[in-house]
Structures are given as structure tokens and as C-alpha cells.
Amino acid sequence: MRERMLRAGGEGFADYELLEYLLTIAFRQGDTKPLAKALIREFGTLAAVLAATPDALQRVAGMGPAAAAALKFIEAAALRAQRVALDRQDVTLGGWEPLLAYLHSGHAHRINEQVRVLYLNAKNILLHDEVLSEGTINEAIVHPREIVRRAIEIGAAGLILVHNHPSGDPTPSHADITLTREITAAAALMEITVHDHVIIGRGGHVSLRAQGLMGHDAG
User: Residues 104-136: pLDDT tens digits?
Assistant: First the structure.
């Protein structure tokens, strides 16, 4: 496999073959192919395996903490490399394509909803990327005042809301729209701009700003 990669690159490998080799980080000896195939059967794709939680990974027979940690390190490295493309540029202009690629990699294949906020400075350059909550998006979990308070702490002038729909359909729900408008209104009181709320699904993404759903207070 090593020789194939060096000779022809990774395009010719099946998902389970790439995963098979990655698992050798945790399993120095033995055949990792059966475990790789079991993971693909459980989660569907290599991307979904890497996005799975450590607990979910370890529910697959043969996976232990070392193997789960190895895969999460690989996911973190891939996301870190993608995030470099966002640094030092206005993410609301030329940065949308790398931003969406980064968000899809981090969100599209998660089995639970994750809400995150991208905090921007006055030039719309990324200051901080923070996971706010895990679970269903609603007011019981995501509080507008907490988002605004954190923006003030960081010194952010604007922010982008992001969350995923594990169903794969990125269509915004009524709760998504209502919460977005509440956050936008709360942020406007502190002169903080909510640029967008992006919902990620396996089949694509939806921008609430592009759909005209941000509310009257959107900047």
C-alpha cells in the first residue's frame, strides 16, 4: 500500500484501504483490513468514520481508546490544514469557498448536531472558531446572550453561526430561523454583526442570509 501511494497517489484507494493503513498507527502488528471494513459498514464512508465520536468508534468491535484517538488526531490534522486557508483573509468575501469546505469537513458527517460560532474582527478575519454546544439546536442549549457575551470577551465585531443537520437535509427549521433572528437582534444591540447562519448537511448547505431569513436587524 505504501508503494502504491508513493507511485500513484491516493485516488486509486477505496475508503476501507485508506482506513486500513491509518489504523496501523494504533495497531503495529496484525491485519487491520477486517476492522477497517467493519468501520465502513458501521458509518458508511471514511469521512463519516473520522467524524464519529470516540465513544461511537469504540462501540465497533476491535476499536479501543488508542485506535479511536489515532483517528481523531487524523481528523484534527485534516481540519487544521483546511483552516489555514481561512487565515488572514476576509471570510465573507473571497474566503467563502475555503470556509464552506472547512465547514463541510467538520460537520457534514456528524451523527449529532453541533453548533459552532466563527468570531470575526472588524475586517472579517477569523479570530476564533468555537464549538458552542452538542445536541439539538434550540434555546435550551444555545442562548443568544452567551454568544454575544463571548463575542465581547474575544473582541469580535462580527460572527457567523454554523450547525449541522445529521439527517443530511440542510433545510432550516422554524427553530433555526427564530433563534437566528434572536441572536441577530441581541448582537445588534452591542453593534456586533451576524453575517450569516450556515446549515450543513451531507447533501449541501443552506445560507440563511442567501435565503433572506436573517430578520430585519441583520447587518
Answer: 777 767 777 888 899 999 988 888 888 887 765
More confident of the two residues 59 and 93: 59
* Alpha-carbon span 207 to 150, nearest angstrom: 23
How would residue 140 be classed by pLDDT, with cut points 50, 70 and 90? very low
* 142, 201, 208, 210, 218 from 188: Cα distances, Å: 17, 28, 17, 19, 8
Where on the phi/psi map is residue 38: left (φ > 0), alpha (ψ -120 to 50), or beta? alpha
Which backbone phi and psi does 186 adopt, to 5 degrees?
Answer: -65, -40
How far apart are alpha carbons 125 and 140 in whole angstroms? 30
Query: How many residues are present in the chain?
Result: 219
Distance CA 66, CA 114 (A): 24
Q: What's the CA gap between 12 and 7, in Å, rounded?
A: 11
